[in-house]
Amino acid sequence: MSPVVGRVLVIEDDALNRELLQTVLEGAGFEVLEAADARDGLARARSHQPDIVLMDVQLPEMDGLQATRSLHEDPETAHIPVIAVTAHVKKDDERRCLEAGCSLHVPKPVDTRTLPGIVSRVIAESARRGQADGQREVS
Ligand code: MN
Question: Which helix (H) or strand (E) holds 85?
């Protein structure tokens, strides 16, 4: 058994997409948590403190961008980076994702070969930033 390389929370309303993401990420050594809507996703982020959230933008009721804002307004989950996953590929949608506080925007269908590397990179960048912030607070 290889060690767990990170804990990913997948917030996605489509069961098949959830299963695909889970299979790909677990195959790459990640621990995967799942939620089918924003409300459950935010609750799980608070209770399980994942290293990163993969956020479907098109969710019922609260959409993924609003959920990202809520996640980052909560001090308990403000530090958790978000990768937005969306079927939209227009430049404007990418900008909206970044404005909502997402670190990155990944189009659907997700490229399963590159996804694990992208997730690892965003986790590492977020951790480095967190350390830098901590050092600034101390000094
Ligand atoms: Mn969806």
Answer: strand 82-86
